[in-house]
Amino acid sequence: MGGPSPKSVETLNGAHGSSSYAHRKPRRHMLSTESNCRYVDRDEFCRLLLGFSQMDRVDDPESGLRGLRDTATGMLYVIEHDKLTSLRPRMAT
């Protein structure tokens, strides 16, 4: 289905060696200006991950980013690792 396989994980950053915030900020800014890159919230990231489109994982651990690239369009969907893994309160129904 559309989920990524462990073999398809690549990185966004190339050869960054430091995980300090000073190195994270320029990479995040650069991605935000790319026309084929869109920052998404956690719900959308999960929908993309579990959807029917073929996606490859594209992560940048040094920048604290997790990403999915649509193999058909080349579009990159990115979320900050902290936003993906943070717990949020559920609304009572």
Could you give a quick summary of the protein structure above?
The N and C termini lie far apart (32 Å).
Please write out the topology.
Elements: E1 10-11, H1 21-32, E2 37-39, H2 42-50, E3 55-59, E4 65-70, E5 76-80, H3 81-85
Parallel strand pairs: 1-3, 2-5
Antiparallel strand pairs: 3-4, 4-5
Characteristic terms for this protein:
about 90 residues, alpha/beta, 5-stranded mixed β-sheet, disordered N terminus
Detailed description of the structure:
It is a single chain. The protein is 28% helix and 23% strand. With 93 residues, it is an alpha/beta fold. The protein has a domain at 38-85. It has a 5-stranded mixed beta sheet, sandwiched between helices. The longest helix is centred in the first third of the chain and has 12 residues, at 21-32. It is globular and about 30 Å long. The N and C termini lie far apart (32 Å). The model is unreliable at 1-9 and 13-21 (pLDDT under 50).
